[in-house]
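Good morning,

Attaching, inline, the backbone tokens for the sequence recovery test we're adding to the shared suite. The designed sequence is right after.
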């Protein structure tokens, strides 16, 4: 354990924040004299075949050793000295374009790149933009091509499971799509679809994520010290951009797996002006379950009487999601985007028990008494998102993006119990309805601006307003009569309240080349939350530095403060509908984190390596008090929680090969994470290890292209075991009840986790550009029994207990077929 750290007081942080903004605003004028007489070369970079804009394409001017990259809209801007200039445009996997132009005034030049053989991204001397030579620490671009080649789980590749293979990111629980980044909690990750946040990204309790890989164009993950343009979470940002759709032709994809199927269609609405992309996905286990209902019938009799009992049980589960993107090009300066997402998980149960008592009446049995009990439940949770985006080129140097969006996350649990009975002419009926609902509705309006007049500076600034409507825990109980049907009394009970909160945010960041070898990103973010009569003011300074030691070596350092206003209260260890998203209130302050990172980076040709160390302090964690939970107690959720702090620190090593027949990476993480709740409501106020305090983590991901039609992949993961809480003793109290003695939270370390996954892809090209792809994957190839859940089992008369593990994911063979047309 490292010693506690006393961080700066709020006034000191505010002073530092204002100082950084002062430097940010006035830094451009220091280089203004050097930039007089410059003109701008700007435009869009796109795929020549599909019309899709390319994010992160490199634009490089060799003579001045300056360059830039295209932004999230595929737009670029570069300030150059007038005259004849030779410019190189490149993008990984595309044939580069070198062109010479006579540049005497501002010029918009749109470039179309053709897919070509695998090419390494052009190195931009003095302004490198790869993950390892760029300014950001902990940023990784996730290759969608590599994702499609890795082993799948029950026929589905998953973006979040792919990200779990990177250093500094824990897997959470076996087989589940959660991110635990640098000792944070699972709710501290910002998931963005085209710049719009989603609160929950799990299907089937986390077995799958909501990101359909067929809909994704690019994805990047930022760990820890992310730039000022991102905010609202403490640990990471997963920035996903969806496909715009083919501008020229109609294309599609259909995939059939063991438990789900997918389809993707795209094409022009107006050729070269308007396009669409639609991706849908659904599981079909429920359709199979409906064909085989569970029914049990039993008849017993005595002295001519006959008692008939009948039981019917039905358990159905499915999830679905769909993504829709419409892209319209008004002219060279204005473009509109419409993004729609919806995803739901639905789990229903129904249990019908009936009995009838028959008395003999001659040769026939006459019913004397019947009774039926029917219990049903519905779990439903999911996201809805609709966003309208507007890209606007205000000038060759200034680009704007404005988004208006609506999102709704909900998790609903409802149960119904009905009883009917008939005894002769008398009949009675009763019912009980119970529901537990929670959710969030957001209305957002944001504007982001990018200014690049000078080749040595790249300025971003913007802001937004969000109106949040939280429904943290709404309980409804209704009973209908235990009397006869006509005079049944009605009782209704409703608990819970809506909490409204308004959030404002402003940010500015200046990416500046200070010397030939030293670059910096100086920025800050200011957010305010108004909830009831309370106003929270959160300054968040951000600073990143990069010292280029040579063409191959660089050192980066960063410091960042982050704030988070919404948290997830989990009643169990899996993502379930009973989890509550709750806001900061007048009684509960926002979470804060303070993180510093230092790293050494190396890159040569297609090889990369990095070694990063970090320290992070987190405050105002929220957790249920010991002995409490989502179903316990009748009071307000705010009365059942405690506030605490946490620490996380460690080192991360990554070795990577990006191109060639053999590609992939090796990663290792050494880390510590702990928590403390000073109020003694959790673990008696003592410090304890976090449940995902995995001391060692090692990942290997390798892809081998055997031929143009066959590739192989292998993933091996190792991790120290998660920590769980088990009682060390059980005893009988004076009332005869069994009580458990728990010495401390997370007192038991589960066995180490490791598994090997294998994948085989077979590509079968067909006429007219069509393609059939077979994927065969083996999950946990050597069938290691990894512990998923720990159960307690009493042992002997001394009351001591031992742990017994459950391993549900021992071995899985999956086959899927994808057809592209």
């Amino acid at each position: 354990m490292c010693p506690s750290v006393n961080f700066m007081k709020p006034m000191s942080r505010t002073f530092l924040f204002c100082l950084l903004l002062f430097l940010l605003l006035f830094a451009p004028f220091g280089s203004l004299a050097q930039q007089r007489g410059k003109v701008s070369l700007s435009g869009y970079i796109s795929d020549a075949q599909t019309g899709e804009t390319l994010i992160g394409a490199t634009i490089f001017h060799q003579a001045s050793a300056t360059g830039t990259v295209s932004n999230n809209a595929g737009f670029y801007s570069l300030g150059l000295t007038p005259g004849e200039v030779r410019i190189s445009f490149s993008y990984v996997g595309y044939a580069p374009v070198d062109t010479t132009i006579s540049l005497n005034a501002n010029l918009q030049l749109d470039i179309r790149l053709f897919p070509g053989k695998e090419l390494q991204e052009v190195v931009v001397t003095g302004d490198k933009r790869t993950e390892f030579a760029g300014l950001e620490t902990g940023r990784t671009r996730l290759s969608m091509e590599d994702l499609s080649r890795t082993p799948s789980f029950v026929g589905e590749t998953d973006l979040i499971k792919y990200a779990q293979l990177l250093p500094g990111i824990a897997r959470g629980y076996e087989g589940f799509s959660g991110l635990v980044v640098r000792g944070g909690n699972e709710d501290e990750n910002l998931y963005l679809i085209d710049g719009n946040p989603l609160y929950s990204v799990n299907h089937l309790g986390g077995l799958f994520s909501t990101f359909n890989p067929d809909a994704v164009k690019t994805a990047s993950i930022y760990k820890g010290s992310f730039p000022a343009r991102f905010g609202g979470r403490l640990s990471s940002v997963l920035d996903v951009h969806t496909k715009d759709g083919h501008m020229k032709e109609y294309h599609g994809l259909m995939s059939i797996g063991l438990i789900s199927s997918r389809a993707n269609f795209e094409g022009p609405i107006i050729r070269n002006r308007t396009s669409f992309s639609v991706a849908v996905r659904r599981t079909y286990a429920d359709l199979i379950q409906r064909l085989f209902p569970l029914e049990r019938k039993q008849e017993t009799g005595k002295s001519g009487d006959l008692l008939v009992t009948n039981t019917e049980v039905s358990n159905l589960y499915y999830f679905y999601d769909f993504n829709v993107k419409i892209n319209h090009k008004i002219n060279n300066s204005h473009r509109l985007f419409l993004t729609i997402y919806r995803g739901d998980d639905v789990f229903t149960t129904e249990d019908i028990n009936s009995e009838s008592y028959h008395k003999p009446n001659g040769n026939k049995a006459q019913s004397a008494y019947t009774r039926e009990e029917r219990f049903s439940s519905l779990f439903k949770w999911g996201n809805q998102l609709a966003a309208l985006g507007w890209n606007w080129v205000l000038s060759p140097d200034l680009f704007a993006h404005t988004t208006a969006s609506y999102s709704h996350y909900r998790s609903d649990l409802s149960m119904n119990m009905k009883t009917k009975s008939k005894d002769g002419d008398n009949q009675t009926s009763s019912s009980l309805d119970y529901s537990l609902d929670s959710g969030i509705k957001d209305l957002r309006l944001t504007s982001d601006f990018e200014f690049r007049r000078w080749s040595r500076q790249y300025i971003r600034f913007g802001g937004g307003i969000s109106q949040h409507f939280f429904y943290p825990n709404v309980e409804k109980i209704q009973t209908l009569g235990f009397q006869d049907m006509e005079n049944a009394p009605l009782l209704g009970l409703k608990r819970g309240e809506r909490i409204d909160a308004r959030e404002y945010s402003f940010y500015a960041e200046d990416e500046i080349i200070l010397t030939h070898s030293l670059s910096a990103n100086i920025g800050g973010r200011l957010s305010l939350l108004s909830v009831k009569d309370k106003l929270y003011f959160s300054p968040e300074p951000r600073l990143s530095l990069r010292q280029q030691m040579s063409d191959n070596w660089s050192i980066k350092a960063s410091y960042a403060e982050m704030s988070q206003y919404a948290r997830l209260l989990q009643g169990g260890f899996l993502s379930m509908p009973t989890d509550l998203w709750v806001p900061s209130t007048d009684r509960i302050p926002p979470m804060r984190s303070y993180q510093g990172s230092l790293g050494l980076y190396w890159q040569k040709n297609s090889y990369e390596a990095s070694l990063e160390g970090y320290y992070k302090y987190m405050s105002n964690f929220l957790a249920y008090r010991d002995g409490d939970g989502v179903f316990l107690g009748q009071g307000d959720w705010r009365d059942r929680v405690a506030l605490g702090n946490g620490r996380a620190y460690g080192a991360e090593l990554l070795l990577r090969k990006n191109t060639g027949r053999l590609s992939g990476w090796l990663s290792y993480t050494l880390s510590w994470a702990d928590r403390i709740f000073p109020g003694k409501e959790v673990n008696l106020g003592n410090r304890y290890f976090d449940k995902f305090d995995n001391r060692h983590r090692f990942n290997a991901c390798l892809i081998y292209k055997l031929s143009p039609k066959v590739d192989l992949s292998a993933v091996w993961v190792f991790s120290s075991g998660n920590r769980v809480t088990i009682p060390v003793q059980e005893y009988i109290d004076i009332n005869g009840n069994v009580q458990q003695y728990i010495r401390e939270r997370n007192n038991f370390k589960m066995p180490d986790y490791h598994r090997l996954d294998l994948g085989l892809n077979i590509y079968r090209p067909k006429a007219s550009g069509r393609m059939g792809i077979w994927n065969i994957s083996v999950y946990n190839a050597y069938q290691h029994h990894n512990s998923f859940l720990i159960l307690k089992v009493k042992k002997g008369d001394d009351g001591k207990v031992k742990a017994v593990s459950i391993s549900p994911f021992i071995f899985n063979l999956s086959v899927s077929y994808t057809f592209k047309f």
